[in-house]
Each structure stands twice: as C-alpha cells, then as structure tokens.
C-alpha cells in the first residue's frame, strides 16, 4: 500500500522523495547510472564533458516540459471558466452541471500538470463546491474522513508496524530461501515476495525494500562472470539482462500485487467509496469480495509477466555465463543472520494473519447451494454496523496497547527511534553503543568487566516493556497527503451525483454506437495509457465516476465498467513516471528507459486484454451480477 514510514507518496510523479529515502536507508547510488556499484569514485575528463552535455540536454528538456505544463494549465483553467459562465446550461437550466464539470476540469488539469502539489488540488472542493452552491460545506468535509478513509488508515498503520519490527524483511527473505539458485527461479522468488508484500504494504515501500536484495544478487552474478566481463565493468557497465529482468519484475510485481487486494493500492479504495456514493443501494463490497476476483486476476498477470521476462531476458540453458547460478545458500545465510524470531515479531505477524482472516470471514460466504459459512459479524446485535474499517481499527488499537521491548527494534530500519540501540553512559556522560568491536572505555575498568556490565544492562533492558508494538511516533509517519487526496476525489464523486452531472454524462454516452464489450475495452486501454502520465489515484478519482455513467447509459452492471477501470490504474508498465515502483527501479541506474519502454508496451496490451476477460468471467461470478445485466440497485 500504497502506504508507510519509508514510503514515497504513491500519488506523486516526482521521484525525489523515493530516491532520497532509498539512498538513506540502503546506501544505493541512484544517480542515473554513475557509480552504481560504488567501485569507482571518479570520472575521467571525457566523462565530465559527457555528463555536462547530458545535464544541458536534461535542462532544456525540463524547461520545455515546464512550458508545456503551464500551457496546458492555462487552457484547462480557461475552459473551466467558459463552461462555468459562458456556455448555456446543459440540462433543465441546471447551472450546477456546468459548474461541477468546470471544477472537475480544473482539478483534472492540475492533477495532470502538477503545477501545484496534488494534495493542494485535492483541497479545492472544500472551497469551490460550497461557494458555487453545489454541496454543503459539512457534506464536503465528511468525504475527507469516512469509512473508506479509516480502512486506508488501518492499512497504513499495520504496514508501519510490520516495517517497524522488520517483519517484512523476514517474510521476503524466507520466500527467497525457498527458491532455487537458477536465475528464472530467483526472479520468481523476488517477484513472489514483492507481490505478496505489496498486497498489504505500500507498493513503494515494498519496492524500496526489495531493490537492494536485487542489486546484491546482480553484483554476485557479475563477480562470478568471466574475467573479460569483469574487466569491462571497470570501464563501462555492460548490459545485464538478468538485472533488467529482476528490476522490471520487482516493479511490475509491486504494481500487480497492489491491484490484488482491496487495501493494496489507493485506486481500489477509491472505487470502494465511490460505489457507495454513486449507487447507495449496491451490496457492500468486502475485502473477501475483492480478493476473490482481484487475487486470481493478479496471479494470472503475475505469471504472464514472469514468463515474458524469462523469455525476453533470461536463458534457460545451464551453460550461459550471463545467467550463471549463484550460491544457493546466500539468502539462507542472510535469513539466519537476522537471528531468532522475537516475541514482538511473532505477535505482529499473528495479529496480521488474524486481521486478514477477520476481513475474509466477516460477512457470510456462499460457496454453492449446500455450502454456507456464516460471518463472525452475526455474533453482534447488528452486523451491518460492522465494516472492514471497524475490524482494521480494532487490530490497530491492539497494536497501540500491546507491550513490547524497544531493544528488539530493527536499528537498520528508517523507522528507528532514539532508543533503537542500547547505549551505556560513562562517567563523562558520553555514550557507548553496545556491540562495538572495540572497547573505548578509559575509566579503569578491565575489558572483561566492561563487557559483563554491558551484557547485564542488555539483559535488563530485554526484560523491560518500555514501548508498544505501535507508538504514536511511528504512526505519525503515515502519509496524510494520500488521505486528503482520496477525500478530494470522494468529494468530486459526490458532486457528480448531487449536481446531476453523472446523469447528464450517462445520457450523452448513450448516444455512442458501440457494443458494451467495445466500450469496456476502449475505456480500459485509455485509462492504462492515461495512468502512464498521471497519478493512478488522480486517474481513478476522475475516471471511475465516468465509468459509472457509462454503465447507466448502456444499462449494464456498474461492476462491468467500474472494476476494470479501477484495476487498469495499476497496469501502467511503460514509463518510469507511471508508478512509484517504476521510478524506484529506474533510479538505480541499472535499467535503461528503453528496456522499460519495450517491455511495458507489450504488458500494457496484455493487461488490457486480461482485464477485459476478467470483466466477463470471474468478476460476474464473484459479484453475482452478469456482465451485461442491469441490476435493480443501479436503476434507482
């Protein structure tokens, strides 16, 4: 989830935050390819000239893009003003339709160009909708803190707790120890660990965690290659097909993993809330519902990506030096170096599994005519009062009050606190970190006595529950801008309904002479390529209400348009700016943009076809509404 302490804001197209944090936490050079191995700390004069030339070209390109963004922004703002004050009313003298459409154009333009921060644009509904008389101020404010927002917050806080106690590192390394030493299997292991973690943890944070492991594997492979290849690497980094496959696999698996879970990425939660706003009579969409169709769809796309990367970049032959197997005990040794599981890690993982089970079995599950599993919510007076957000916050409150020992915190994590390392104050008031390889004490203690004193203090600290599994210092690292960004989208969706704009768009779309399947495929393709240039959260905020209008216009199930539109927001594979995981792997300097472009175009097309297939197969089967059926709750 997107959503965490070392998490780049998943809605921004800028990679500065993710790059800086990646450098701080992992020590990986991310300077566009220079010194990516850390083995050459200088450039030749020729290299300096090349770098200067590249910087000038980048500056010119950046300036041109800035002017283009400014021009698009001016056109968008002027178009909104014309719609608002010049163009005749759209329907029944209802000026609010024009005004809502104008505000939507303003917000879409600002989200596209990012002239101002995305979160600032998301706050515009708080001012504009009340001023234009479209929505009451209280109604707008409620959209920024609703049931779906609290579900998102619960997911954020759970992810922060997993990272605080290094549970995510243990999970990923354990998965990698189960893989073989052949490059295709290593690629599968890296992608599988990324896919699983990104279902519950921010896809950006997951990518930031997995990339150092990938670079370590690539370095080992390069060191085991021929002496000629090693000689070439000192002057010019050779093309490394395995590195390309590994980095692309991690980025793509993070995107697809987020798509597979309701809390995995922001667009899924946008759909969850907008379905409630646009179709109040629709049955509740639970975590189990989304997982039932999202996980199989994600796994199929995951398998396609893995096979494609293996065929494109990896040799399946044993005698290929470029894909020589590495030491099969590498990840096992790294995992063992983490030490035994601590009480805190066991507790956090137990609560994590408990939450997943509570989400899945909250509501009744029907597996056929003779198999009915009642939900645990039936044990309470009114099951309809209990939502996935209720369950999530219940576990979060347990995390806040469950005692823990700060000495078991992961000191290498970016979440470390002031008490992450145990220190001993000497008579001069100076601190000595326990575990130092040398004894720096100068106060007459013998070496053995100092070690004994420090060990006793370490043991005493181990017995102290001086913190909790989740404290407010950690919780306060939650990306609040994502919350506001979602709230702005929810407010825009409510205005679409209350102003009559959704009804008007539906009537206009009804004039299109295309079959439903053609409209769905066109919409999926358009959203995938639009997401290459814009934030996927912004795209979902804009396109999901339009998808709902298309469903009403064609008298088709809203699921047929809204669900594939949501999932399409996570299927942008071509450009580094498309998603934060794409940007993170590109910023390592080991992946040329051309490689991402070539691989991504094919996967974008495959993604479009796969989502269309899911729209007419697994989604209707799970939701209980045929693809081209117009349910009663959608007609109200």
UniProtKB/TrEMBL annotation:
InterPro entries hit by this protein: Na/sul_symport_CS, SLC13A/DASS
Cellular localization per UniProt: Membrane
Single GO molecular function: succinate transmembrane transporter activity
Lipid bilayer topology: Multi-pass membrane protein
Keywords attached to this entry: Membrane, Transmembrane, Transmembrane helix, Transport
Residue spans crossing the bilayer: 70-91, 103-132, 144-162, 183-201, 287-309, 512-531, 559-578, 599-619
Compositional bias annotation for Basic and acidic residues: 13-26
Region Disordered, residue ranges: 1-58, 418-460
Bias-annotated ranges (Acidic residues): 46-55, 425-434
One annotated Gene Ontology cellular component of this protein: plasma membrane
Polar residues bias: start-end ranges: 1-11
Major location category of this protein: membrane
CDD domains given in the database record: SLC13_permease
This protein's name: Sodium-dependent dicarboxylate transporter SdcS
């Amino acid at each position: 989830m997107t959503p965490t302490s070392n998490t780049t804001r998943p809605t921004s197209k800028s990679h500065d935050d993710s790059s800086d944090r990646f450098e701080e936490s992992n020590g990986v050079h991310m300077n566009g390819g220079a010194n990516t191995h850390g083995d050459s700390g200088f450039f030749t004069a020729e290299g300096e000239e090349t770098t200067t030339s590249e910087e000038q070209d980048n500056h010119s390109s950046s300036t041109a893009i800035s002017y283009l963004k400014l021009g698009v922004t001016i056109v968008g703002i002027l178009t909104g003003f014309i719609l608002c004050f010049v163009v005749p009313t759209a329907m029944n003298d209802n000026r609010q339709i024009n005004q809502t459409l104008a505000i939507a154009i303003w917000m879409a333009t600002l989200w596209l160009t990012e002239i101002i921060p995305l979160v600032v644009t998301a706050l515009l509904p708080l001012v504009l909708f009340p001023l234009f008389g479209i929505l009451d101020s209280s109604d707008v404010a409620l959209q920024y803190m609703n049931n779906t927002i609290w579900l998102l917050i619960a997911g954020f806080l759970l992810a922060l707790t997993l990272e605080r106690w290094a549970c995510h590192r243990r999970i990923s390394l354990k998965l990698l120890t189960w893989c073989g030493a052949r490059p295709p299997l290593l690629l599968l292991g890296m992608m599988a660990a990324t896919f699983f973690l990104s279902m519950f943890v921010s896809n950006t944070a997951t990518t930031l965690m997995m990339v150092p492991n990938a670079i370590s594997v690539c370095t080992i492979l390069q060191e085991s290659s021929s002496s000629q290849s090693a000689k070439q690497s000192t002057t010019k980094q050779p093309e490394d097909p395995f590195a390309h496959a590994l980095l692309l696999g991690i980025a793509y698996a993070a995107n697809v993993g987020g798509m597979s879970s309701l809390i995995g990425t922001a667009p899924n939660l946008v759909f969850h809330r907008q379905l409630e706003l646009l179709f109040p009579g629709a049955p509740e969409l639970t975590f189990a519902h989304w997982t039932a169709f999202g996980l199989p769809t994600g796994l199929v796309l995951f398998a396609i990506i893995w096979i494609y990367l293996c065929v494109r970049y990896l040799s399946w032959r044993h005698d290929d030096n470029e894909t020589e197997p590495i030491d099969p005990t590498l990840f096992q040794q790294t995992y063992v170096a983490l030490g035994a599981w601590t009480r805190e890690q066991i507790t956090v993982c137990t609560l994590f599994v408990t939450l997943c089970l509570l989400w899945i079995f909250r509501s009744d599950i029907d597996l056929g005519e003779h198999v009915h599993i009642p939900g645990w919510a039936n044990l309470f007076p009114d099951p309809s009062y209990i939502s996935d957000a209720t369950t999530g916050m219940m576990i979060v409150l347990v995390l806040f009050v469950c005692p823990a020992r700060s000495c078991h915190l992961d000191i290498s994590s970016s979440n470390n606190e002031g008490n992450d390392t145990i220190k001993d104050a000497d008579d001069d008031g100076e601190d000595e970190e326990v575990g130092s390889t040398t004894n720096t004490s100068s106060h007459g203690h013998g070496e053995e006595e100092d070690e004994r004193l420090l060990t006793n203090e370490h043991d005493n600290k181990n017995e102290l529950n001086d913190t909790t599994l989740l404290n407010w210092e950690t919780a306060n690292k939650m990306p609040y801008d994502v919350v506001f960004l979602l709230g702005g989208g929810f407010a825009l969706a409510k205005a679409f309904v209350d102003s009559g704009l959704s009804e008007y768009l539906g009537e206009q779309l009804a004039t299109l002479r295309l079959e439903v399947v053609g409209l769905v495929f066109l919409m999926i393709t358009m959203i995938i390529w639009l997401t290459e240039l814009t934030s996927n959260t912004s795209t979902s905020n804009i396109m999901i209400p339009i998808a709902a209008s298309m469903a009403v216009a064609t008298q088709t199930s809203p699921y047929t348009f809204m669900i594939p539109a949501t999932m399409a927001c996570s299927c942008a594979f071509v450009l580094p700016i498309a998603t934060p995981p794409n940007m993170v792997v590109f910023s390592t300097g080991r992946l040329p943009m051309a490689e991402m472009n070539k691989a991504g175009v094919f996967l974008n097309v495959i993604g479009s076809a796969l989502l269309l297939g899911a729209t007419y197969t697994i989604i209707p089967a799970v939701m209980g509404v045929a693809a081209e059926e117009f349910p009663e709750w959608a007609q109200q």
